[in-house]
C-alpha cells in the first residue's frame, strides 16, 4: 500500500476532527467528544501549540469511497517524567478500518517515536482501552509495556465541576 506520513497542518484539521470522531465511535465513547475543527486549529497551530500531529495520506487512486485521502493520524505532545525526564505522550493513534493491517499504524507510531528521540525524550507514553486486544497485542509486540499491569498505576482525570471545585483555594 502506497502511503505517506507527514506533519499535520492547519488545513488537516477538518480531517483530523472527522477521524477523532471515528476513533471515539470505535471506542464507543463518541458522546465524550467536544472538540471542534476550530479548537484543533487554535490549539494545534497557534504560536504556542498544545499538541502536534502527523497524518497518514494515500494517493488519490486509493482514496476512500467517501473521497478521503487522509486516512490516519497521531496527536502527541511533550511532557516530563519526574523519574526519567523528557517524554512524549501520544494522545491518539488512528487508522481508518479499511487501511488497517498495512503498516500505517506502525509507521505513525514509529514517526512519533522518532520525533520523541530527536527531542531527547526517553519515554513514549499513551493509553489504550482494555478491551482492544488487537491494539494491546500490537503495542506489546512493539516492545511497549503495560504500566497498569507492571507498576499498578491508573490514569486519572478531573474535569468539569470537579476541576472547578479542585481549583478553589
Structural overview:
This protein is an alpha+beta fold and 169 residues long. 35% of the residues lie in helices and 21% in strands. The chain has six helices and five strands, in the order βααβββαβααα. The chain has a five-stranded mixed beta sheet with strand order 1-2-3-4-5, with helices on both faces. Helix 3 links the parallel strand 4 (85-95) and strand 5. Helix 1 (13-26) crosses helix 2 (37-44). The longest helix has 15 residues, at 104-118. The chain is globular and about 55 Å long. The relative contact order is 0.13. The mean pLDDT is 95.
In total, how many beta strands? Answer: 5
Order of helices and strands: EHHEEEHEHHH
Major sheet: size, sense and barrel closure? 5 strands, mixed
Supply Rg.
17 Å
Strand proportion: 15-25%
Low-confidence segments: none
Shape: globular
- N- to C-terminal distance: 55 Å
Helix content: 25-40%
Structural class: alpha+beta
Overall pLDDT level: 95
What's the number of helices? 6
Numbering strands along the chain, what is their spatial order in the largest sheet? 1-2-3-4-5
Brief descriptors of the model:
single chain; 169 residues; alpha+beta; 6 helices; 5 strands; 35% helix
Report a brief summary of the structure:
The chain is of the alpha+beta class. It has 6 helices and 5 strands, in the order βααβββαβααα. Strands 1-2-3-4-5 form a 5-stranded mixed beta sheet, sandwiched between helices.
Topology (elements, then pairings):
Elements: E1 4-7, H1 13-26, H2 37-44, E2 52-57, E3 70-81, E4 85-95, H3 104-118, E5 123-125, H4 133-141, H5 147-151, H6 160-167
Parallel strand pairs: 4-5
Antiparallel strand pairs: 1-2, 2-3, 3-4
Helix pairs in contact: 1-2
Amino acid at each position: 500500500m502506497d502511503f505517506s506520513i507527514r506533519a499535520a497542518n492547519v488545513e488537516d484539521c477538518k480531517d483530523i476532527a472527522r477521524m477523532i470522531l471515528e476513533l471515539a465511535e470505535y471506542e464507543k465513547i463518541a458522546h465524550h467528544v467536544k472538540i471542534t475543527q476550530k479548537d484543533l486549529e487554535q490549539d494545534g497551530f497557534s504560536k504556542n501549540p498544545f499538541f502536534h500531529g502527523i497524518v497518514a495520506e494515500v494517493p488519490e487512486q486509493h482514496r476512500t469511497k467517501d473521497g478521503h485521502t487522509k486516512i490516519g493520524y497521531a496527536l502527541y505532545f511533550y511532557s516530563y517524567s519526574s523519574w526519567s525526564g523528557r517524554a512524549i505522550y501520544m494522545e491518539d493513534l488512528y487508522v481508518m478500518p479499511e487501511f488497517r493491517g498495512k503498516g500505517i499504524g506502525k509507521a505513525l507510531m514509529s514517526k512519533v517515536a522518532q520525533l520523541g528521540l530527536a527531542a531527547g525524550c526517553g519515554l513514549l507514553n499513551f493509553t489504550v482501552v482494555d478491551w482492544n486486544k488487537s491494539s494491546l497485542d500490537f503495542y506489546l509486540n512493539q516492545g511497549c509495556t503495560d504500566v497498569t499491569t507492571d507498576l499498578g498505576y491508573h490514569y486519572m482525570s478531573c474535569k468539569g465541576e470537579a476541576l472547578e471545585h479542585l481549583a478553589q483555594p
